[in-house]
From TrEMBL, chain A:
It holds the Pfam family PurS. InterPro entries: PurS, PurS-like_sf. The keyword Cytoplasm applies. PANTHER family: PHOSPHORIBOSYLFORMYLGLYCINAMIDINE SYNTHASE SUBUNIT PURS. This is Unannotated protein. GO terms for molecular function: ATP binding; ligase activity. Keywords: ATP-binding, Cytoplasm, Ligase, Nucleotide-binding, Purine biosynthesis. SUPFAM superfamilies: PurS-like (SSF82697). GO terms for biological process: purine nucleotide biosynthetic process. It comes from freshwater metagenome.
From TrEMBL, chain B:
One of its GO terms (molecular function) is ATP binding. Gene3D superfamilies: 3.40.50.880. It holds the Pfam family GATase_5. CDD domains: GATase1_FGAR_AT (cd01740). It comes from freshwater metagenome. Keywords: ATP-binding, Cytoplasm, Glutamine amidotransferase, Hydrolase, Ligase, Nucleotide-binding, Purine biosynthesis. This is Unannotated protein. Transmembrane segments: none annotated.
């Protein structure tokens, strides 16, 4: 069974206070590696068998209309086996 | 004859009753509308109330946008039908692309509840026509995701076309671009506002009665049609 993954991130120019909060919490725990942190969303969509091109096109459309808001976010669609 | 103003209830709406009450106090007849029906029940304007439609899952307003009632509202709005979106209703209007931009997490990450001073910037919309230009009002602001964001081009367009209808004064509550508290569409029939006018209609329960003017403005405009 394959999984279609949709990852949604805020556009770089959109303020991400959640990511900033994570970035400022890291050094408090002794983690000093992070220059900055951006937080996003990941959707795992299960389909039967390998996804067909038609299914992928539908996922693409869903990612653009529902899973992400193109005003503030970008998305990437990929398949995991 | 009193005008019929619909108030939509989504699963998770909180302020639908207060909005209906504000409509009645302004002299209109409040008509409850339900998210799952596409029937506008012959109302002459609609209020999308505050709350947490669909639990704010995914993004605030993202799922409410696909409710059957929204199809009817989006179609009607494009023909000049007056729509006011308050708080979550504003978020729904942005997700529906009736208004540009998006509301994101408050810059300080806190849910905020305060009496907020606003400056009314545009009195040419259906919902703000009863204010004086530049009038300052105080109404409650209560949200976690009220930071208005858009790209530079959209911001320039909103400012140059005078579509910012209200701005935060004295205090920046959430990091909104240009301190924007509310905007309108090009025609001025669709208005989105983060703070809550429906909670400021009586001195007993609100910080002022300034909020009532949003509702009386719309009813006055309907008389003129």
């Amino acid at each position: 069974m394959a999984k279609i993954i949709v990852e949604v991130m805020l556009k770089p120019e959109i303020l991400d206070p959640q990511g900033q909060a994570v970035a400022s919490a890291l050094p408090r725990l002794g983690f000093t590696f992070a220059k900055s942190v951006r937080q996003g969303k990941r959707f795992e969509i299960e389909v039967d068998g390998d996804p067909t091109p038609a299914q992928m096109a539908e996922v693409e459309k869903a990612a653009e209309t529902l899973l992400s808001n193109p005003v503030i976010e970008t998305y990437v669609v990929k398949v995991e086996k | 004859m009193s005008f019929r103003v619909g108030v939509v209830t989504f699963p998770g709406s909180l302020d639908d009753r207060d909005a209906a009450r504000a409509v009645e106090m302004a002299g209109g007849t409040a008509v409850p509308l339900f998210h799952a029906s596409d029937d506008l029940k012959e109302v002459q304007a609609v209020v999308l109330p505050g709350g947490f439609s669909y639990g704010d899952y995914l993004r605030c307003g993202a799922i409410a946008r696909f409710a059957p009632i929204m199809n009817s509202i989006v179609t009607a709005a494009s023909h000049g039908f007056p729509v006011l979106g308050i708080c979550n209703g504003f978020q729904v209007l942005c997700e529906s692309h009736l208004l540009p931009g998006a509301l994101t997490r408050n810059s300080n990450l806190h849910f905020l509840c305060r009496d907020q001073k606003l400056k009314i910037e545009n009195t040419n919309t259906v919902w703000t026509s009863g204010f004086k230009p530049g009038q300052e009002i105080v109404i409650p602001l209560k949200n976690g995701e009220g930071s208005f964001q858009c790209d530079d081009e959209t911001l320039k367009m909103l400012e140059s076309e005078g579509r910012v209808i209200a701005r935060y004064v004295d205090f920046d509550p959430n990091g909104s671009r240009n301190l924007i508290a509310g905007i309108s569409n090009e025609r001025g029939n669709v208005v989105g506002l983060m703070p809550h006018p429906e909670h400021a209609i009586e001195s007993l329960t609100g910080p002022s009665t300034d909020g009532l003017t949003f509702f009386t403005s719309a009813l006055q405009q309907l008389v003129g049609r």
